[in-house]
Batch of 2 targets.
Target 1
Amino acid sequence: MLNAELKSDLDKLWKRFWAGGLANPLTAIEQISNLIFIKRLEDLDNQNIKRAEAKKEKYKSIFSGTFEVSGKKIDKATCKWSHWKHFTAEQMLVHVRDVVFPFMKQADHLEIMEDAIFMIPKASLLQEAVSIIDNLKIAPQNYDVLGDLYEYLLSELSSAGKVGQFRTPRHIIRMMIELLEPKIGDKICDPACGTAGFLVNAFEYIKKSNTSTELIQYDEAGIAHNLIGDKITKKEHWKILNTETLYGYDFDSTMARIATMNLLLHGIDKPNIKRFDTLSKAFEQKSHYDIILANPPFTGSLDESDIHSAFKADTTKTELLFIELFYNLLTIGGRAAVIVPNGVLFGSSNAHKKIRQLLLEKCQLEAVISMPSGVFRPYAGVGTAVLVFIKSSDKTESVWFYDMVSDGFSLDDKRDPIGDGKGDIPDIVEKYRTKAISEKSILVPIDKIKSNDFNLSISAYRETKQEHIEYEQPKKIIEKVLKMEKEIQEELEELKKMV
């Protein structure tokens, strides 16, 4: 729950980077992330030192000892934020670029940072950024605010004038997670993770499920905060949640680093984020995950020679290959909630039909939730749907369809909230539990879908309501017309006498 002062400081930081020549928002976010992370390293180290002292345990500071840069041994203590934050602008630029940044790249569990590049071009810009970040009043252990801060930064990707990456609306992500109900022990994967929105929100959902109701706070948008997970009392469960639960892959190194930072700033100590093209031969497709949450690239095709041999669908279309990938990565009984373009639902090619057949005959296809075309504005106006399925030897018997009319926001580029900003989402989550039938939802038997080329579009099955209108008998209509004509004639005769 960022206050107005924090938001103002972050907006100021954006403007500084914009004016300083870093107009690409992804580059700006990455560079800001680096600085926030460097500050957080010292804050957490100090916190761990105090905790160890209180418990009379041994703890080795991450800033103790030396490391090598260009053949020189450097004292790690000089990398502390508090050591160099008061340097002159020029001294600071040289020190951060040549000493602090290489130290961060060598940090444990941050292999993804190895090819990161320090790109802040001006000493004055770095000094201003450090000053603003240093004044952000955030306690080191307050991951909730740190996470909100980062989400606010990421939200700038969709702001006018900033050309950003495709980013899934957070309320849609939360809906999909509520449908799957992840828990401690589930291995959760997003094979096209982008900024790690699905992973972060899955983590938050699990913490919320394990936080006492009276401790949870809600902001004006209805989003839960203070998710401390007080009901998680076993250390091994925290360890599982922090190190063995969330897994993400992205082919873009910048996005993978931003995803890593996002998880770190939400309290995940060891993010399992890897740079990989998960459709390529280089990626090992193992049935390893209990939950798949994803919004993969909608368009594009791959070089046929680089497509993984595990794929059975004869296509280069990424939106189809990803669905097969999700199936391949799930354990038996594993479940998925993924976003697909509407073309996947009714496309007539053999590959389209084969993918739909896979979902219906080798999985339990639980739900097809059609979303209005404006949900992804201002990025794109393409129509999309959420597929919910379980990898199972039991075939689908019937499919639950829901036609989302509103997601709670206007469907233009402004995306202003409408009413309480929830739209049909609470109704979807409630009715999904029992596959209830309503004005917006139907249940269709598998045989009917098979006989219709495995079509998964709700419009192919929903009956069109025909309103019955009763008309008067022609004789009565003629009598009414004659009567009206007579009345008009009489009125004209009266007018004629008055002239």
Target 2
Amino acid sequence: MGSHVSAIPNHQLHPNPPLKTRGDVAYFGTFGYELDPKKLSEHEKEEIKKQISFMKEYRELIQFGTFYRLCSPFHGYDMAWMIVSKDQSAAIVGYYRVLRQINAPYRRLKLSGLNPEFMYSVSSKKDLFYGQELMKVGLIISDSSASENNDGSFEGDYLSRLFILKKVD
């Protein structure tokens, strides 16, 4: 799947998602840039450096892991997918909220492809979770750790959040 971080506003639909969101989506494909780097602010250049470092760190998992679509954008305001390593010891979950809903209920995202017997740590979460728990009950995605925008606020459209799962020995 091809996916690049494009310039904004996009010439086709004119949305204006943050650079972080565009990068978080692009990781799950070929990951590249289609923009003029001379037009970027220093802050954006630093964000791109972080994105490239993230991609280098997780390239093998992204390239060789098993991809799962968890939630389709065609059935609501959220979409999510994940990649799980072949040995099921690591995963990356991408959660995206296209449009913010007012007074939305708490939501859980049921994951796929994990080993039900493994205990996992999840980035931004204090607790540990069994794979079976994450697949049957799900990961809470509507708490403050899953709703934080790039500027630290908890509002707005085009929110993205990555969860890194690692097996705990």
